[in-house]
Specification:
The complex is a heterodimer. Chain A is an alpha+beta fold. Chain A has two domains: about 55-305, Lipoprotein localisation LolA/LolB/LppX (outer membrane lipoprotein receptor (LolB), chain A, Clam), CATH 2.50.20.10; about 315-445, no CATH class. Chain A has helices at about 5-15, 20-35, 50-55, 55-70, 80-90, 185-190, 200-205, 320-335, 340-360, 365-395, 440-445; strands at about 100-110, 120-130, 135-145, 155-160, 165-170, 175-180, 210-215, 220-225, 250-255, 265-270, 275-285, 305, 310-315, 400, 415-420, 425-430, 435. In chain A, strand 15 and strand 16 (about 425-430) form a beta hairpin. In chain B, about 40% of the residues are buried. Chain B is mainly α. Chain B is about 75% helix and about 0% strand. The longest helix of chain B is centred in the first third of the chain and has 27 residues, at about 5-30. The chains are: A alpha+beta, B mainly alpha. The interface between A and B is large, with 52 and 51 residues.
């Protein structure tokens, strides 16, 4: 781009008229903020406003961590929930530069069709530094009828190294490690500034929640907030209904120190598909713990094997990547995934992959080849899930018709979302893309798939 | 300062700078959602720093707050690489040309949000507000040559970041 062109663009931006809508938005925002400041309780919790504004970011960060967990250990999906909370807490560190906490999780059931029922306990320590990254050490004890190591405790270490855009999982028992590259989007999520611990309060405020009032934990006066709103997990878990619903339930209780508003304890209980239940607690929070960069540098002994050798890449959250995911799924199955939310997607593709694997003869592929192939298939499909999540959390009103629209339905709307006022972006059955008005969309959606 | 005094000062400042904030933030964002977020961050920044918004330097502080708010809003637009929703279509204009121009403008805006603060202020004042170098120098508390240098460095940074696009 030359100087003239750049100047031309800058000047044209400078010459733009400010639309009356901008003045109205500014006036509304200004009046609302002013009203907020005049609320009697405001001086005690001045940062609440800012916290509320970041809800999308927090949910996206949580969603990103779900994906990391899913990508790393498909058969061990229980890790998801631990990581959701980890992602949330990582976003909540405000003035705190380093935080350490402990977590316990118990999982029963089978999240992936075709994988036997599992019961596992996880217990670990997480340390997060704004400056250096994150380290998680997790001990897992699996109970699975067909698992030869049933009852045996395994240890995993996970490092997030923002400077290198890397996540590294080290599995000492297997003498293996996995390297994953972050996309810029995910890195941005992981590096979000102002990780205020009170973000969890705001996150719950973004969902429907109940104030449980005051209580006491270990001599500390605490206030509890409970939510059973699946919205707390953004668009990641479409089939998790509110507690008591047909498909399952989610309950998260956050206890915060009444004086500092810092989390003291998080209790989680989630049921998915009536089969899988995940319960857990996060506790022993320590704020501003002294940290040294070396703690966050992955320690990989020389005799450990990279698995897979070339490392892995994290999924992207773009329209193009989502379309690629739809294409890969369509090519593999002859139809599109039934749902676009991450959990349903992962279950559906996992079932397909498990079936495929059952047809393979022993020795067809090495472990590394199998993992590489699986991840190559899953990454773009996860991109679809992440893209959908971002749309949900951005309130872009995404609608997905995978249950009724297939690759042969050329002009039918497969997925659509709002891109501007009275303007929608549409992915059609043949995976072409277009932008239409609200009226055009209504016409398109009236037509049944051929 | 008492809460009531802070409130009164805040109300005065927000009323005085409302049009300025709206204009600068709209030009920097060019998008309703980003603009709303940047405006909210600006208001919050003004409230947090309201004690500094008395006297002559208030304008300079507001500028800083607005640019920081703009950068935060852009940073929050994760996963979409600063994609900007389109304006209502002008049927007289060639669609490809219009889309190309909008995309370029969106990319320029995004890169402005990533500039160092002083360079961002300089480029915004020079091009988005069409101010002369003397005025920029006064607002940046530097010489006229310094103002030119900041604009020129900002242009160089933008050019290098946008080099691959055109």
């Amino acid at each position: 781009m030359n100087d003239d062109k750049l100047e031309q663009i800058l000047n044209s931006i400078g010459a733009e008229e400010i639309p009356s809508e901008a003045h109205r938005i500014a006036q509304d925002a200004s009046n609302n903020f002013s009203k907020f400041l005049r609320q009697p309780s405001q001086p005690a919790k001045p940062s609440l406003w800012e916290l509320i504004m970041r809800s999308r970011t927090v949910k996206l960060a949580a969603a990103a961590v779900i994906v990391i967990a899913v990508l790393v250990g498909l058969p061990f999906l229980p890790k998801d929930t631990a990581s959701v909370t980890l992602g949330d807490v990582a976003e909540k560190l405000g003035q705190v530069k380093a935080i350490m906490y402990r977590m316990k999780m118990h999982v029963t059931g089978s999240m992936v069709p075709g994988i036997p029922q599992v019961s596992s306990d996880m217990e670990g320590t997480v340390i997060i530094s704004d400056d250096f990254g994150m380290k998680m050490e997790m001990d897992t004890t699996m109970e699975m009828e067909t698992e030869p190591n049933a009852g045996k405790k395994t240890t995993q270490l996970m490092y997030v190294v923002p400077d290198s855009k890397l996540m590294v999982m080290v599995m000492p028992d297997e003498k293996r490690f996995t390297r994953m590259e972050f996309s810029d989007d995910l890195l941005a999520l992981m590096k979000k500034q102002n990780n205020d611990p009170r973000e969890m309060i705001k996150q719950m405020m973004g969902a429907k929640y109940t104030d449980l009032g005051k209580s006491e934990i270990n001599g500390i006066e605490v206030e509890g907030f409970e939510t059973t709103d699946p919205a707390i997990y953004g668009g990641a878990m479409g089939n998790v209904k509110a507690a008591g619903g047909a498909m399952g339930g989610v309950k998260v209780i956050l206890w915060v120190d009444a004086a500092t508003w810092l989390p003291v304890l998080v209790e989680m209980d989630m049921t998915i598909n009536e089969k899988t239940r995940i319960t857990g607690t996060i506790y022993d929070y320590q704020w501003n713990v002294p940290v040294d960069k070396s703690i966050f540098e992955p320690v990989i002994p020389a005799d450990y094997e990279a698995f897979p050798k070339e490392g892995m890449k994290m999924p992207e959250m773009t329209e193009e990547a989502a379309i690629e995911g739809l294409k890969i799924f369509g090519d593999l199955c002859g139809h599109y995934p039934k749902q676009a939310n991450m959990m349903d997607l992962m279950q559906e593709i996992s079932a397909v992959l498990v079936e495929q694997a059952s047809k393979e003869r022993p020795g067809d592929m090495t472990d590394t080849e199998r993992v590489t192939k699986t991840m190559g298939t899953m990454r773009p499909i996860q991109s679809l899930g992440m893209f959908y999540m971002a749309l949900v959390q951005d309130k872009k009103e995404p609608v997905y018709y995978g249950e009724t629209v297939g690759p042969e339905d050329v002009g039918a709307v497969l997925m659509r979302w709002k891109s501007a006022e009275n303007e929608y972006r549409v992915i059609f059955g043949d995976l072409s893309v277009g932008t239409v008005t609200g009226e055009q969309l209504a016409e398109l959606e009236k037509q049944p798939p051929k | 300062m008492k809460h009531s005094e802070r409130l009164e000062l805040f109300e005065n400042v927000r009323s005085r700078y409302s049009v300025f904030l709206t204009s600068v933030l709209w030009k920097l964002t060019g998008d309703k959602e980003l603009f709303t977020e940047a405006m909210q961050y600006s208001l919050f920044g003004m409230w947090r720093n309201v004690e500094k918004l008395k006297g002559e330097k208030a304008g300079a502080y507001i500028y800083r707050i607005a640019l920081t708010a703009n950068s935060k809003a852009w940073r929050n637009r994760v996963g979409r690489n600063g994609e900007i929703p389109n304006d209502p279509i002008d049927p007289a204009e060639d669609a490809d040309e219009r889309l190309g121009r909008e995309e370029l403008a969106a990319n320029v805006r995004r890169e402005i949000s990533r500039l160092p603060r002083k360079q961002a202020r300089a480029i915004v004042m020079r091009y988005l507000e069409q101010q002369d170098y003397q005025a920029i120098a006064e607002r940046l508390s530097c010489s006229k040559a310094g103002a030119r240098s900041n604009v020129s460095r900002a242009m160089a940074t933008l050019k290098s970041k946008l080099a691959a696009l055109v």
